[in-house]
Fold this protein.
Amino acid sequence: MSPKISGIDLFCGAGGVTHGFRMAGVHMVLGVDSDPSLKSTYESNNKTPYLCADIQKLKAEEIIKLSKIKKSDKIVLSSCAPCQPFSLQNNKSDKEHDIRKDLGFETVRIIAELENTGYSLASVFIENVPGFEQTDIWKDIENSLLRLGFSLRAAVVNFANYGIPQNRKRFICVAHKGYSFFRFPPETHGVGRLPLKTVRQAFEGLSKIGAGQECEKTPNHKTRALSPLNLARIAHVPKNGGSRTSFPEELVLECHKDFKGHKDVYGRMKNDMPSPTVTTRCISITNGRFGHPTQNRGISLREAARLQTFPDKFIFHGDNLQTNSKMIGNAVPVEIARIFGQNIKKHILSEQAIRK
């Protein structure tokens, strides 16, 4: 009889990893995050309990109690700690300590506590921005996992190469207890493989709407309103990849008149390419190349969610557009979690079969 594979999702957000792991056949037993506004979205879409807690105060005993895991379970732990402290876009001085940089260490602490209580932690899934793997923090976490008896496979991958309709480079590490050889799932899209998934494919079938409008037929297919000035600006941006360089003089922002950089701001996505990286401000045309390829507006919440491979049945709760946008932008794409979840599950089961 195969062992039960149970998943715990630390820093779970709205549940991108949880949803993808569930699709892969991992029994998700608990999501943990510190934001109470996530609870409704997480629990209703994932059928998994959500614990709103400060991970720095969380003990393994509480996880065991709430998740109802058993010592016979093979546990998969996901830890996708906030990436903003390690992003190239974060301009904070090195002297300013961001407490979020400490959160990865809490994962190691919880792993050690779980093992000390006799539970079987089989695998750990970690995702962060590419800059993370160059930090002393990651090196300390890596060494800690090695000391705890894990073998590690880590790399920076572009999720577009796994069929995600978005260029999104991220650092991924999969750690397995023991020293068996583990391979990442093979890339399936790109040069010499299947064609990259595109924005056009992601948005297919969605109704045409305007800025500040909402489609009643499709959940979360709603957009930010635009001022008359910004409506005029987006109307001057050429379709399918145009930028603010096409603005007439009277529409150019003062801060851009002597500045040639950041041309993605007010830009449109290209229909037949993967999108740029979806961020927490992905529905705002003033925060990146988040203009719709052909319609005079920013992309909708649902369009952003599709770029993150959330199914349309996954509904983001709350009436605050920016809160929902943050949920979407912070998520690990569901399909990436499914692909890696399947691979992790296969490895655990094959190891179990060998031992028998």
Summary: Strands lie at 5-10, 27-33, 50-52, 74-79, 120-128, 150-158, 169-177. The mean pLDDT is 92.
